[in-house]
Amino acid sequence: MRHKSQKDENFPVAFFLFPKEKRTLINAYYQFARMADDIADNPSLSSEQKLNNLNNLEEILLGKDYSSPKFSVAKKLRDAFLEHNLSFSLATDLLIAFRQDATGFTYQTWGQLCQYCTYSAAPVGRFLLTLNEESPSTYLPAASLCAALQIVNHLQDIKYDATVLKRIYLPQDIMTEYNVSQDMLSSPSVSDELRRCVDALIEKTYGLLKDSEILPYIAKSRALKIELFVIFYLTKSMLYKLKKKDFLANNLKLSVSDRLWAVVKGVIRGLFAPTKTLNSKGL
Question: Are 148 and 212 a contacting pair, CB within 8 Å?
């Protein structure tokens, strides 16, 4: 089973931007989400076993006395959430998405896929914004950005998801429109049909980024502005790779130069970006 660590993430959280007392909370949240993701993605477990494990995580998080050290991450996150007075929905919403993953849910439309992202990705954005004490007005554009990040990861992992996890995140109606069959997802190289299908999804993802453009400008935290600009640049770099390269034949990753260039540009933009309100005209 493939297991990701924080250093393997395309869009890792910049821990140094947060005070030391909040880094423990962030790590507890990440470890909880990582365990839930690993459960849902474990090809050696049945759907029933996955759901049982995910339910155990939730029960411990919500206060059930369960002593198994296997799920100690849930107890650690519960303690951290109680200490910081955070809503458990920031974690339980993630489990809704992981349960869909565990059962191999099929997405018929783009709308269904975006709805999945409201549980799989948006809670992470709300969590980080809450830690920065940002206004709830940031949540909606953050949800669009988080959805874009999630879909980029899906597009990167098309082949692995289809062959190993037997899971397809491409909306079925868009696959039908471009005459894409399931077996094309596990081919040695990308077909013309799949290329056009993914290009269409890339354009929709750019639309999500457009919807989230206001976010770094309405964020109050200068450090958060910087991180958001870095994330925007990293996302666009990966979308460019997905559009220009064979994502079935190659394991597409962000390079060191991609990351360094995104950091440089993100820091410059973040340092000088003004803070706006939602009724501002344009960016």
Answer: yes
Q: What is this structure's pTM?
A: 0.91
Residues of the chain below pLDDT 50: 280-283
Q: CA 222 to CA 270: how far, in whole Å?
A: 7
C-alpha 238/C-alpha 210 separation (Å) is: 16
99's CB contacts (< 8 A; 6+ apart) are 40, 51, 54
At position 210, the amino acid (one-letter code) is K
pLDDT in tens, 60-75: 999 987 667 788 999 9
Contact 283, 216 (CB under 8 A): no
The confidence score (pLDDT) of residue 190 equals 97
Q: What digits encode the pLDDT tens for the residues 9-22?
A: 555 555 556 677 78
In the chain, alpha helices (H): 20-41, 47-61, 72-84, 89-102, 110-120, 122-131, 139-156, 158-163, 172-177, 192-211, 215-218, 222-244, 256-272
- Rounded distance between C-alpha atoms, residue 132 and residue 125, angstroms: 11
The letter for the amino acid at 90 is L
Is residue 3 within 8 Å of 51, Cβ to Cβ?
no
Question: What per-residue confidence (pLDDT) applies to 280?
Answer: 43
| CB-based contacts of 191, cutoff 8 Å, min separation 6 | 180, 184
Amino acid, single-letter form, for residue 64: K
> Tell me, what's the pLDDT at 21?
75
Instruction: Check if the beta carbon of residue 107 is closer than 8 Å to that of residue 167.
Output: no
